[in-house]
Write a structure and sequence with these properties.
Blueprint lengths: L1 E2 L10 E5 H8 L3 H4 L4 E4 L3 E9 L12 E2 L2 H7 L23 H16 L24 E2 L2 E2 L4 H28 L5 H9 L4 H38 L10 H25 L5 H6 L6 H37 L9 E5 L8 H8 L5 E7 L9 E2 L3 E2 L9 E5 L4 H5 L3 E4 L11 E5 H7 L8 E4 L2 E9 L14 E4 L8 E6 L3 H15 L6 E4 H7 L2 H35 L1 H9 L4 H35 L10 H27 L3 H5 L3
Parallel strand pairs: 2-4, 12-17, 14-16
Antiparallel strand pairs: 1-4, 2-5, 3-4, 6-7, 8-18, 8-19, 9-18, 10-12, 11-15, 13-16, 14-17, 15-16
Length: about 650
């Protein structure tokens, strides 16, 4: 929006800012005032504004308000020159996709060449990944894409397709079941010379017109509901009516649903016998009735599967959100500071300890429940030639007590200075080292020699999709870190008010940033929570649509058997007996639906749970509940219409004029 994009970051003291930052500091006249002005970055160094860019949109993976040259950061952080460190994502463009193979090979060879013989470097490689795929395809297995958020997109697409199929089945079922109502029309058209193809086309067009009308209504409702789905997904969702592909999609779905709904009636109904059609004495074949029953079984199988899916997802979420993580995440606050805080972190820590509601606090190199800082430079005596990526947590002597963790062997840190070359490790790391007793074993990382003084209980450093990684905890130079973990005991609002007041007094130019660890942990399962809600909604819709079809079929059956019901009533049959008679066939169909849903539900539930390293055990009651719930709703639907039929006056049903 201002400045030269080709030269804006050519100088070390240059900075490019967003339009919102420009407006914040320079008001409406930012176009005249921003370029060439000076900004103080993190209270650390001054930069000259060389460019202004448009704000990043909410749907962008990268969110930022200012950019500085990478070389300026490198100049302030000499550790980036160590081949044992890897802290950046590198974005590059290629002339063509065909050359990517050569790029990957060159990257691998360059890293091997430079890191070979380096004390802190292990065997590393980089993954080349399309930027447009980063959001949806974010999981990797041995350097190969292995799913990600795209898995949930696919689940939702499949569920949506199933619901459309169920609705189409209802249309087919009701059209063919009530075909007797239109048999005279079909017979008359045949007598007047209509061909089978023209009659079939008529039913096709009727189905297609209904599908198009449904699409118009559904788009209107989606447009109304988008704000609610945006809140649910915590993303900005919209229908892009200006995009040609949107209209192609609408037309395509309408066409497919219209064909799917109309194909069976269009093929079946034109084959009716002319004489029987005109007499109105048309009786559908057993094959047609069997096909219709098969469609009912399919409908309720899908509904049962969705209920099983909802129950399994809920069960797993309950498991991960309530499992013992190896530390106490409740009433724990992570406070982030920036470079402008300077060397005042220790002072801040000491002042916070005077607040009555603060029980304990510790400096840390990151949030222990979302941790990924690692190195391959860790060495120990007797280590094999393999290279291991070990998580490194830099902290102080209060970390274990603040986290509520357990020391299983040895001891905790006692003094930051005395224990600066002593290390704590977790159980996974102890197993990796292979010693029967790891206490006092020599160990080094980043070229710093020390020894193991304690083993802490494993705790989850990522969500439960991931295995617990080996961890080394050190209290070497924690004052260089920028994070503070605070254990609150008392009124949290009062505590946070006092904590913020101290922060603002010590660092008036800085922005106070904090997060409750239990909320951060819960938000790490936002994808699963959203899918749980959506599957629940879809299961209700699916069951509702299935019951609509069942209601229509049971009404038609009751109408077809009205004379039989009248005769049975005259001979003394009770309403309860009649309801059981009319419901029996559908009850058997729903029983078959449950039996079909069981193996598929078990298989797909296991497939989904395998995405978690730590998962709940499938409870047979989940499947039993899903089957009984579906059966109960279906039985109530049929019984309602059957009860109405059973209560009809036999004089009216037996009268034949």
């Amino acid at each position: 929006m201002a400045g030269d994009r080709n030269t804006a970051l050519n100088t070390l003291d240059g900075v490019v800012i967003s339009r919102s930052i420009a407006e914040k500091y320079f008001g409406s006249s930012w176009k005249e005032l921003a370029i060439g002005s000076t900004l103080e970055i993190d209270g650390n160094y001054e930069s000259i504004i060389t460019g202004v860019i448009e704000n990043t949109k909410a749907n962008s993976t990268l969110q930022f308000d200012w950019l500085i040259p990478a070389q300026a950061f490198f100049a302030e952080n000499d550790w980036v020159n160590d081949w044992g460190n890897g802290s950046f994502r590198i974005y590059f463009s290629t002339v063509s996709e065909e050359g990517l193979g050569a790029v990957k090979k060159r990257l691998y060879n360059e890293i091997i060449t430079h890191s070979s013989g380096q004390e802190n470097a292990g065997e590393e490689y980089l993954i080349v990944h399309k930027f447009e795929d980063c959001y949806l395809y974010s999981n990797f297995e041995n350097g190969v894409v292995d799913g990600g958020r795209i898995d949930y997109v696919r689940i939702m697409i499949i569920v949506a397709i199933f619901i459309l199929v169920i609705a189409s089945i209802n249309f087919m079922n009701l059209t063919t079941a009530r075909s007797g109502r239109r048999s005279k029309e079909i017979g008359l058209r045949k007598v007047m010379g209509a061909q089978k193809s023209s009659i079939g086309l008529q039913f096709f067009l009727e189905s297609l017109l209904l599908s198009i009308a449904s699409m118009v209504v559904s788009v209107f409702f989606v447009w109304l509901l988008i704000p609610y789905f945006s809140d649910l997904e915590m993303k900005e969702l919209a229908i892009d009516f200006r995009n040609q592909l949107t209209w192609i999609y609408f037309a395509g779905v309408s066409l497919v649903v219209g064909i799917l709904s109309g194909i069976y009636p269009a093929v079946l109904l034109p084959t009716f016998n002319i004489v029987k059609s005109l007499r109105g004495s048309l009786v559908q074949s057993s094959a047609t009735a069997l096909f219709r029953k098969g469609l009912v079984v399919f409908q309720f199988t899908i509904s049962t599967l969705l209920i099983i899916g909802t129950a399994v997802i809920y069960s797993q979420l309950d498991f991960v959100l309530n499992k013992d993580l190896g530390l106490d995440k409740d009433n724990l606050v992570a406070i982030s500071t920036d470079q402008s805080f300077g060397d005042r972190l220790e002072t801040y820590k000491n002042e916070l300890s005077q607040i009555p509601q603060v029980q304990d606090l510790s400096i840390s190199s990151g949030n222990p429940l979302q941790y990924g800082r690692s190195t391959s430079s860790v060495k120990w005596e007797g280590m094999n030639n393999d290279s291991y990526e070990i998580n490194i947590m830099v902290t102080d002597e209060h970390f274990v007590s603040t986290m509520g963790m357990d020391v299983l062997q040895g001891r905790d840190f006692m003094d930051q200075k005395l224990d600066s070359t002593n290390y704590l490790i977790n159980e996974v790391m102890a197993d990796l080292m292979g010693f029967e007793d790891p206490i006092n074993q020599s160990l080094s990382f980043w070229g710093i020699d020390g020894k193991v003084i304690g083993v802490v209980k494993n705790f989850h450093m990522q969500n439960m999709h991931e295995a617990i990684a080996p961890l080394l905890i050190t209290c070497i130079a924690p004052s260089r870190e920028r994070n503070l973990l605070v254990r609150i005991n008392g009124e949290p609002n009062a505590a946070m008010k006092s904590i913020k007041e101290v922060y603002n007094r010590l660092n008036p130019k800085g922005e106070f940033e904090y997060a409750y660890l239990d909320e951060v942990y819960r938000n790490s399962y936002q994808g699963e929570l959203t899918v749980s809600t959506l599957v629940k909604i879809f299961a209700i819709i699916s069951l509702f649509v299935s019951c609509l079809g069942l209601f229509g079929l049971s009404a038609f059956t009751a109408e077809q058997r009205s004379k039989e019901i009248g005769v049975r009533k005259v001979h003394g049959a009770s309403p309860q007996q009649l309801v059981l008679l009319l419901s029996r066939d559908y009850s058997i169909l729903m029983g078959w639906s449950f039996l079909l849903a069981l193996p598929f539900g078990y298989y797909y539930a296991n497939q989904w749970l395998e995405g978690f390293e730590f998962r709940t055990v499938l409870n047979p009651l989940i499947f039993l509940f899903a089957g009984l719930f579906t059966f109960l709703i279906g039985a109530l639907t049929v019984s309602f219409k059957s009860l109405q039929a059973a209560g009809a006056n036999p004089v009216k049903t037996l009268k034949d004029e």
